[in-house]
Amino acid sequence: MATLAILVLFSCGTDKKDLLVGEWKEVGTGNSIIQYNSDGTYMYNYDDGTKTSGKWRLDGTILYTTEKGESLELSEELTTLDETTLVSNVAGMFETKYSRVQ
What is the pLDDT, as a whole number, of residue 68? Predict the structure, then answer.
């Protein structure tokens, strides 16, 4: 019984916010790159060469972003987030997959 309790405690060890920090490249649907920084900022480089930046926060599996100069906070669900893969879903309709770059 004690072994089971220890396994449960350590299985929850990695903070999802720490997993999100880093550079991610879109796979399958495009080549955009997004960088999430530990200070709660992000930089998004789109396929067409345009760039946006702003602030991010994570509440459970919901990622909230606010583009610089805007007040509207957007949300998306992170259906997968681990050391190598990020999958986000907007409104249950638009899924985007990313692979960790660094």
Answer: 97
Q: Tell me the residue range of the domain where 90 lies.
A: 17-100
Within a domain: 47: yes
Q: What is the CATH number of the domain that holds 49?
A: 2.40.128.280
- How many separate domains does the chain show? 1
What does 54-73 look like in DSSP terms, one character per residue? Answer: EEEEEETTEEEEEETT--PP
98 class by beta-carbon count within 10 Å (0-12 exposed, 13-18 middle, 19+ buried): buried
Residues whose CB falls within 8 Å of the CB of residue 21, separated by 6 or more in sequence, listed in order: 36, 37, 38
The angle at the Cα of 96, spanning 58 to 61, to the nearest 5 degrees, equals 25
- Helix ranges (H only) for the chain are 2-11, 16-20
> Is the full-model pTM beyond 0.85?
no
